[in-house]
């Protein structure tokens, strides 16, 4: 948590091959220049090892923010509208032909890299660019939260933990605003999308997903139990005495409703992604599975906070029932249930160790939507409350069905601010009224898929050797 997005790659493209401007002749060349920077940044990011990608995301964000004002100026010139008080006019010489590699669509051939899709609309070029920026913000949020889940380093104190969560929340809300902006643009576009990555339903789903994750972080900031479980599993932690966490009764009920709101956003995102269709328009199974796991985790957290609320009121039996309801939402058998088997516990322990290795290697950790972490927290409280109920209170544990039926509705905490895309300064627009200083040859650059091909030599020969076996001379010597 958040979802480990993969940034797309794109082909080279020259705007001068498709557009010309009478008012700003240098605009196509400048746009091609900044787009080339984005292409190189995405290509380099893809080739970096997973442990180095998190530090490179800021470079990708800088390249995208530098290119966005120019592609929006191209869009303003095609409509045409004014930008920064300056009127832009563009003429179309030929339809653009740009290629992007989708990352959310299902792969047609398992085990092979997804094929690129051809984009012939500036609206879809803007959608791919802005969605890449939103995904980059999500990756920055993941990098900010990564120290909270590392069990091989020193545990963060409360101030550092709060700062990390606040930083991640800010970037997730920015990503949600960007996706909401792209979805509004996509709903007004008449041209069908080239793939499901930039379809209106998928963009709305990604906005709901980012909002669900940000809502869940609002709970995590004041939830002491995940930190206690992580500290208990940290091998480098030297603290041997823990203060019992205290959550006020009013806040426990509030946290439960916030978790239910996050579950509603995750369910909305899941339904929108599943409505994308089948075949080439189908969403990646990994993302669909993550959305379902996130929804289950949110509901399980809500059950846990309802249990904490009941335990504060002295109803330990009802609190245990809420924990059992949370485990049922997660699809995990309780340790105190007769149905629990040794194999299921072994499978869970193996999954936990596998997730810990992913966290250490900074790969696709958190792809389970937080199910593993929430399972450990609920099992910790369940063991504690069962011992308390068996020795002191001896209360009957009610059925979980009526409890789930009386769950209230969710409560929102975040409001999305409209995304304000950057625009070119008036002085830059005035400078682009001059004719271009050189030719626009960015479309002749090799694709990231073609750079390693080149001209191959004969089998068994050196790379620099000639591709043909025979010499042009017919002489024997």
UniProtKB/TrEMBL annotation:
Q: Which GO terms describe its biological process?
A: cellular response to pH
**Pfam families referenced in this protein's UniProt entry, alphabetically:** BRO1
The entry's protein name is pH-response regulator protein palC
Q: Which residues form the BRO1 domain?
A: 1-276
Stretch list, region Disordered: 433-477
The record, for PANTHER family, names: PH-RESPONSE REGULATOR PROTEIN PALC (PTHR40463:SF1)
What family classification does the UniProt entry report for this protein?
Belongs to the palC family.
Cellular component terms (Gene Ontology): plasma membrane
Note the superkingdom of the native organism. Answer: Eukaryota
